[in-house]
Amino acid sequence: MGLEAQMLQGVFRVPSWLTRTAGTIFLLTAQSSLCATLTVTNTEDKGPGSLRQAILDANAIVEADLIAFNIPGQAPFTISPATPLPGITRSASIDGTTQPGFAGKPIIELDGSGVTAQQAAGLRLAAANCTVRGLVINGFQSRESAGLLIVSSGNVIQANYIGTEVTGEIALPNYSAVWIENSSNNLLGGTTPEARNVISGISGNTQRNGLTLYRARNNLVQGNFIGTDATGTIALGNGVGIGIGGGSNNTIGGTNEAARNLIAGNSYSGIYLTTGTSSNVIQGNFIGTDVSGRRALGNEEAGIWIDLGATLNTIGGPGPAAGNTIAFNSGPGVMIADGTRNAIRGNSILGNSGLAIDFGSGKVILNDAGDADGGPNNKQNFPVLASAVSTGQDVTVQGTLQSRANSVFDLDFYDNRECSASGYGEGENFLGSVEVTTDANGEASFNVTFPASAAAGRFITATANDARGNTSQFSQCLQVSAAALSTKLMVTRHATSDSLILSWPASSPGFILETTDNLAPAAVWLKVAESPSVAGDWNSVTIKPSNRSSFYRLRRP
Hints:
It is a single chain. Helices cover 3% and strands 33% of the residues. The protein has two helices and 45 strands.
């Protein structure tokens, strides 16, 4: 039985002890949006002032409650339950940031190392519209346990360290960090640093996820560090960073830079999409880098792995800031082992050990006539590049696409510092797109210019996207050549002397003025000693006449 099935049969049952309401409310104050404030005043496992008692009391109240903290003494404050805490069965906010002394990092620790019961959870949200904020949750390692289990909707999870100790720098793993099932409209993280969760610590030879979205829909995951420490520079990996199974319409990241998740340092893939997963959007994230987006902190398999029929998922996009950086992973950038209509567009994919986009075989699938084959993303044919010429201000790319007849395709183009060892591309910098339509023979040609400084010596690559969202593998790399540049040299007489003025457009940079006294094949051209002056739109050099013939030319070294 798979982990998902085991969790479904085990963890997500609500045993009778979850609904106990015994206990006394020991502090009650009015709130603008909450009925009561229940204050935790000690680190005991049970009894008045304990977290356990506060949860029991909150479950006994119909209205939403705030569970706050005011524990005397020196931080951190560690609560070590001996048995699973009660599940939260009525809306409540558990807010560790209310503890005096909180200064931006959580100081309330929930340590599950003493809980031996299987299928336990550090906190279990069975009621909708709960908030968990400012906690450290670690040590819940008994089989099929989770640091945080969510089986309800509309919850907010922010500012927690899940799977580390209180500094966020050392792993103290849970069996699974965060598990969300049959649940929707939850927010994990947010668009401010204060909202960020660190979800890490499940390292070693395990495919258990940091974050699992199982049959979960319309959830928003933003601004988190998943697989790293709290600085975003050291790997404290999970097995898989984020696993989505049977989930749809979830958003990982966003087009706002502040929504970016860092998903790095995990023992398997950064993100794994599997059976029944569709219509999820993955945008704007760093997958395989550190927090700077430039240094390697790769996942040990693919950056993103798509399998078992996952479909209609969007990775990146052609719009501003939609692309992910998928770099330095030990496998491919994106692996589509099985599944179709998965769009991979506008990302920066570079420095991975495998192909940028792999259709499950570890090699480039060559184009076929008519593009009639099937398989991952229908094995969409890629463009064939014929020329790439740079003027220094823009680059013009020409080539062809051979695919299904009378069909519309979007072609995406990328600029790269180098070509991968396969001879086929990654896609370091997204240049832009052009739409083409194939003729009755399935042929389309393109001649497109991008206002980008893809200099001579760099490499252009491209992908093709059909109207159903199938993205091809990358084309072969084509090295950019420099455009043949020319300019004009004008000769005018000085207004008040016999001197001559040699001028050429200032918009033609890099030329030097040379002179010789003959035009023989072996003529020696020497650089004119005078430096050109710039007046308006022209470079100019003033030449004094002599008694011998002189010839002048412009040359670009």
